[in-house]
Write a structure and sequence with these properties.
Elements: E1 10-15, H1 17-21, H2 30-44, E2 49-54, H3 62-67, H4 72-96, E3 101-105, E4 114-115, H5 118-126, E5 130-134, H6 144-154, E6 159-164, E7 169-170, E8 182-183, E9 185-187, H7 188-194, H8 201-209, E10 214-218, H9 224-229, E11 236-239
Parallel strand pairs: 1-2, 1-6, 2-5, 3-4, 3-5, 6-10, 9-11
Antiparallel strand pairs: 7-8, 10-11
Helix pairs in contact: 2-4, 6-8, 7-8
Length: 243
């Protein structure tokens, strides 16, 4: 159903670190920050409360470092620090777009970010501020997908929206399989049983246990976030009831 007013009052946007790299492939591409900030501003103008969880893969990938022989916990902590760099860059971009922003870090780093406190995060959202959750869950062995699902449940979000470079969930990798079809609706159990690459199993299970819808969408198409919060059929939805 499409409506003029938002169908979600509070959302968590999950961005991978690679999104910020844009065409550079590594690091942070300033034009991408500008575009993301413009998209978020459009959504907040509708009265929607926005929180963001960002990965760090454009700077450092803990899993890759672990595979190369580094201690997994150490590698994961380094990845968490990369998410803080991204969060600060995103905060700067959002504030240039005249949005009040707060970075809340799961690893205490008081000189650059507030410590994550659930009630404080909710209060910021209620005051119309965009909240960026950094440093994942603060624990190694958990992905930023799981951090996004956890924070979304903690703050009572209506949905978690995962930004990707494709227009939803496919039955197989569309780049490798010409017969792959887009799935507009899919259940949590189908994602787990079919091994669909949406989020890791821990994140999916957390969303399933708390009936938190997951919307997978293409961030490269301008205006998609606004379309989703207005109820337009964009991307793919994971929920308890499939299509």
């Amino acid at each position: 159903m499409t409506t003029g007013s938002p169908v979600y009052r509070r959302i968590v946007l999950k961005f991978s670190g690679e999104v910020l790299a844009g065409s550079l492939g590594y690091g942070i591409d300033p034009p991408v920050l500008e575009r993301v900030a413009a998209e978020v501003r459009e959504v907040t103008a509708l009265g929607v409360q926005v929180a963001i969880v960002i990965g760090g893969g454009n700077i450092f990938r803990g899993v890759a470092a672990s595979a190369g022989g580094m201690d997994r916990a150490t590698a994961d902590y380094m990845g968490m620090l990369a998410t803080i760099i991204n969060a600060l860059a995103l905060q700067d971009g959002l504030e240039k777009a005249d949005l009040q922003t707060r970075v809340l870090s799961a690893i205490e780093m008081r000189a650059v970010a507030e410590p994550y406190i659930r009630r404080r995060a909710i209060r910021h959202l209620e005051k119309g501020r965009v909240v960026i959750f950094a440093a994942g869950t603060g624990n190694p062995f958990f992905t930023t997908d799981t951090a996004g699902a956890l924070r979304a449940v903690e703050i009572g979000a209506d949905a978690i929206m995962k930004a990707t470079k494709v227009d939803g969930i496919y039955s197989a990798d569309p780049k490798l399989d010409a017969t792959a079809v887009r799935l507009a609706h899919v259940t949590y159990r189908e994602v787990l049983s079919r091994g669909l690459e949406v989020m890791d199993a821990t994140a999916i299970s957390l969303c399933m246990d708390n009936k938190l819808p997951i919307v997978v969408f293409d961030l490269t198409r301008a205006g998609n976030i606004k379309r989703i919060v207005r109820g337009e059929p964009v991307g793919s939805i994971v929920s308890a009831e499939g299509g």
